[in-house]
């Protein structure tokens, strides 16, 4: 099913379409980046919830066409980038779980997924334990050596952000984090990548 037939089928079945549905459609199908601002403004002002945005993005995030899934994931990551400070702990856990599952999707979605993980990695509101979950998912699902430089840099930045992150007034123990990383990296010879890149 191509994007145009998907749009007409979707419009025929949604008589009571909400403004967020239209904004998501404009961003994903029409590639209209101006639709991002009202979505982010609605979230920041409390007129929209993350659940409403994800619900509106649902058909795009699971669409058969990779480019539609990519645009849907890109919109979600852009929303995370602009509104992460408005999310509660439960919402951050759900977003993290979504991105971890999306790592198994088509490789072209990876930059949008990394954008979302990067935004989560700098948030002081990130729930305890999610940093390790994110790192495990990245090291299990991503072949870092085969990535283009900008994506390798994103992964390195995510790791660096977690190493700098403070919890309960204490730095993450660098030795513990490096031990975890070395165990994970050994499976994919990624420790060499860290040393030489």
TrEMBL record:
<dbReference type="InterPro" id="IPR039920">
    <property type="entry name" value="MMS19"/>
</dbReference>
<keyword id="KW-0963">Cytoplasm</keyword>
<keyword id="KW-0227">DNA damage</keyword>
<keyword id="KW-0539">Nucleus</keyword>
<dbReference type="GO" id="GO:0071817">
    <property type="term" value="C:MMXD complex"/>
</dbReference>
<dbReference type="GO" id="GO:0016226">
    <property type="term" value="P:iron-sulfur cluster assembly"/>
</dbReference>
<keyword id="KW-0234">DNA repair</keyword>
<comment type="subunit">
    <text>Component of the CIA complex.</text>
</comment>
<dbReference type="InterPro" id="IPR029240">
    <property type="entry name" value="MMS19_N"/>
</dbReference>
<keyword id="KW-0206">Cytoskeleton</keyword>
<dbReference type="Pfam" id="PF14500">
    <property type="entry name" value="MMS19_N"/>
</dbReference>
<feature type="domain" description="MMS19 N-terminal">
    <location>
        <begin position="54"/>
        <end position="167"/>
    </location>
</feature>
<comment type="similarity">
    <text>Belongs to the MET18/MMS19 family.</text>
</comment>
<dbReference type="InterPro" id="IPR008942">
    <property type="entry name" value="ENTH_VHS"/>
</dbReference>
<dbReference type="GO" id="GO:0097361">
    <property type="term" value="C:cytosolic [4Fe-4S] assembly targeting complex"/>
</dbReference>
<protein>
    <recommendedName>
        <fullName>MMS19 nucleotide excision repair protein</fullName>
    </recommendedName>
</protein>
<dbReference type="GO" id="GO:0051604">
    <property type="term" value="P:protein maturation"/>
</dbReference>
<dbReference type="GO" id="GO:0006281">
    <property type="term" value="P:DNA repair"/>
</dbReference>
<dbReference type="GO" id="GO:0005634">
    <property type="term" value="C:nucleus"/>
</dbReference>
<comment type="function">
    <text>Key component of the cytosolic iron-sulfur protein assembly (CIA) complex, a multiprotein complex that mediates the incorporation of iron-sulfur cluster into apoproteins specifically involved in DNA metabolism and genomic integrity. In the CIA complex, MMS19 acts as an adapter between early-acting CIA components and a subset of cellular target iron-sulfur proteins.</text>
</comment>
